[in-house]
Design a protein that fits this description.
This protein is α/β, with parallel strands linked by helices and about 350 residues long. It folds into two domains: about 140 residues, Glutaredoxin; about 140 residues, Glutaredoxin (3-Layer(aba) Sandwich), CATH 3.40.30.10. About 35% of the residues lie in helices and about 15% in strands. The protein has a four-stranded mixed β-sheet with strand order 2-1-5-6. It has a four-stranded mixed β-sheet with strand order 9-8-12-13, with helices on both faces. A three-stranded mixed β-sheet has the order 7-10-11. A hairpin with a 5-residue loop joins β12 and β13.
């Protein structure tokens, strides 16, 4: 039976596309984190800033303390020892005096090791181990940031490394837009309308890695022979350019990519038809918008039957890319492992003589 799809009105579609392009325009130009900034394969010691609160792992008490001090809540930073992205976030982003001052004025900051077996009490009073709390809250990548209001309700979750500019924007959102019910994307669009941003000259270039259209990616009925990697990019995206030159161009990465079907989609393309892995029909722009991701490039990894096993729009440097590919190829998700647990095991392997 043919599928009947309810399409939005032309006016609604135009509005959505305008909003999407505003979002893409903003995120095309922020400062780009390069492989030259830090080696993401190196094991790094993670030391929290001295202004972080010493918690007794009862987040209800921490929230009560924050409220008593007139603050908006707490910021929980999940890290793991050896994580270079965590160390870089603490050093570069939280080490920025202006950023640190903004966090300290509004939130008590608490650092947690995401694989800790320590007993804790969650914001709602539920006892559990720290590692169970991390899993429940979706902290599959390190670092992960969780913001909670003094009533224990989650305010915002940020997964992956953020540079000072991106993290500052997220703090802006929590400060001026969250309480009025505005979405993060709408907030970004509003900012872009009021700013002048210089775009990168990057344009989507062909690469033999990428499958050509038509994009028939449906795996819901018949399994594919290979896993699938979908990469969302767009013209003018400085981060996409760096991802190509510093990650996708590496021979060791391309060798692993040979085990995937790879599709690169323009996140602003509202015309090209795509049959997604779950069998739904959509355009690249509609698909990207539906993911809820807000940064480019964005990566989605699917297993042979079409189930999504990993996604990220955070910074991905060479080792994180290798780990993500191996996580999918080695089916670590079948063991109920998070990405970070798998990456930790690979880091330990690399450290052995």
């Amino acid at each position: 039976m043919p599928r009947h799809i309810a399409y939005p009105s032309l006016l609604v579609l135009r509005f959505r596309l305008m909003l999407l392009w505003l979002v893409l325009f903003w995120f095309a130009a922020p400062s780009v984190v390069s492989a030259r900034d830090f080696d993401d394969s190196a094991l790094a010691h993670v030391a929290y800033p001295d202004w972080f609160k010493v918690s007794f792992l009862d987040l209800r008490d921490d929230l009560a303390d924050a409220e008593a001090e007139g603050k908006e809540g707490i910021m929980v930073l999940f890290t793991t020892e050896g994580c270079s992205y965590c160390a870089q976030f603490i050093r570069r982003t939280l080490g920025d005096e202006a950023i640190a001052a903004r966090v300290k004025s509004r939130f008590d900051a608490i650092g947690l090791e995401m694989f800790s077996d320590a007993e804790m009490v969650g914001p709602g009073g539920e006892p559990m181990r720290v590692k169970a709390f991390a899993e429940r809250e979706g902290a599959g990548f390190a670092p992960t940031l969780l913001f909670y209001g003094t009533n224990g309700e989650p305010l915002y979750r940020a997964v992956g490394y953020r540079d000072p500019e991106r993290f500052g924007l997220e703090l802006d959102y929590l400060e001026v837009a969250y309480d009025r019910g505005q979405s993060f994307r709408d907030f970004i669009a509003e900012r872009v309308r009021k700013s002048e941003t210089v775009r990168s000259t990057y344009s989507l270039a062909p690469d033999p890695l990428f499958s050509a259209p038509p994009y028939a990616l449906d795996r819901s009925r018949i399994a594919a022979r290979q896993p699938l990697l979908v990469i969302f990019e767009t013209d003018g995206c400085a981060g996409c350019e760096a991802f190509h030159t510093e990650v996708l161009a590496l021979p060791r990465v391309r060798r692993l990519l040979a085990g995937f079907e790879i599709v690169r989609l323009d996140a602003g393309d509202a015309e090209t038809p795509v049959l997604a892995p779950d069998g739904t029909r959509r355009t690249p722009a509609a698909w990207y918008a539906a993911t809820g991701l807000s940064h480019l490039p964005a990566l989605l990894f699917f297993e042979e039957n079409g189930r999504e096993v990993l996604r990220t729009d955070a910074v991905v440097l060479p080792q994180r890319m290798m780990n993500s590919l191996l996580y999918t190829l080695e089916r670590a998700y079948e063991k109920q492992w998070t990405y970070q647990r798998f990456a930790r095991s690979k880091a330990l392997e690399r450290s052995l003589p």
